[in-house]
Structure formats: C-alpha cells, structure tokens
Write a structure and sequence with these properties.
mainly alpha; Hypothetical protein af1432
C-alpha cells in the first residue's frame, strides 16, 4: 500500500472494526478481489482500491439511521478523501463506484472500476465465505437457519447472473456451484427434521 492507501485502510479499520458480516475482513477480501480482477481488466487502481476500501464505510450510519449505506458512504468517502489530499480528479469516480456497488443499488455501475467493485462485493457473498457470512448475518439480526436459507434464495443464488466482468464471471461460476450444492444439502437435512418427521415420543 502507498501512504494514502494506508491512511484509508486505517480509517476504515477505525470505523468498521471486525466481528460482523460487513466488518474489516469483508472489506479486505473485497479489496483483494478488486486487485485480482482489476489487474486482468486493466482498471485504474487509483480509483478502484480506495473505492473498495471505502465501499461499506456508511454501514454504521445505515444501522443507526436507516440511510442507504451506499449513498451515505459515497458522501463520507468524498469528505475523507479530500481531508487527506487525495487527487481531486479521482474522487468522483471513486464515489460513483461506492454509490453503485450494492446488489440493490438504484444506479448502474457506469465505469470499469465501478463494475469491478460491484462484482467483487457480490463474489464475497458467494462460495464458502458467502455461506459463512450468511449465517453471521442471520445471527446479527436475531435470525435462525431458516432466515439464512431465505437469504440464499432471495439474493445469493441470483448473484451469478448479475456479474459484469469476464474475470469475475469465471470466479462466480465455481463459487455459485459450491453455494448451490451446500444449500441443497442443507435443505435436504432440514427436511428430515421438519414437523412431519418429528415424533415427540422419541424424546
């Protein structure tokens, strides 16, 4: 990391911390995916890496006030990047990428860097890591295994078809296959413990 990227990383660490489905570990994985995909897709890393590091910076505000974190995060990122003297010409494409990264974003990613960030964020919701994060998310919301299963169907199984870049599509195919196989096994095991199979006499 260069000096300014390190400052961004330290700032994100101070705001998000660890210990959640959208904590620093998620941000770092997304950033590493952006590095891999960005290198192959010839992205501008001066835009992509700050956007990746800052993409969830609005999560605490969303949790507190209900404001969409992508919109709030773009504003927070803009203020912070100016405060550290980041290249002014790069700030608008960084905030655009943040504003459009989310699965439910109303705006469409309009630059290569924005599309890569959106892809990397989706990839971290797939595969083994995505499975782990789904159960963390369910626990954070006081949910159950059934809530996690619902999230698989509502979101995660749809992600493969929403990937923008060829590099990310290659990664997504493998992660989707793993996720779908896990879900099929989980639902099969849950069927065996459904009320139709439950016999109180056996307790």
């Amino acid at each position: 990391m260069n000096e300014k990227t390190e400052k961004i990383h330290e700032y994100v660490k101070s705001v998000l911390g660890q210990g959640s489905s959208h904590g620093l570990d998620h941000v770092e994985r997304v950033t590493r995916l952006c590095e891999t995909i960005g290198a192959r897709e010839h992205a501008d890393m001066g835009i992509l890496l700050p956007a990746a590091l800052l993409h969830d910076i609005g999560r605490p505000v969303e949790k507190e006030k209900g404001t969409p974190h992508e919109a709030e995060g773009a504003q927070i990122a803009e203020r912070f990047l100016r405060s550290i003297g980041y290249d002014e010409d790069l700030i608008p494409p960084i905030t655009h990428a943040i504003r459009t990264h989310r699965f439910r974003s109303k705006e469409t990613p309009g630059t290569p860097e924005a599309r890569i960030l959106a892809d990397a964020d989706k990839l971290d919701a797939m595969g083994a890591v995505g499975i782990g994060r789904t159960f963390m998310r369910a626990a954070e919301h006081g949910g159950t295994v059934n809530d996690a299963v619902e999230h698989f169907h509502d979101k995660l199984l749809k992600l493969k078809d929403l990937i923008h870049t060829e590099t990310a599509r290659d990664i997504a195919r493998e992660r989707h296959e793993f996720l779908a196989g896990f879900l099929a096994t989980l639902e099969r095991e849950m069927d065996l413990s459904s009320p139709q199979f439950f016999d109180p006499e056996l307790l």
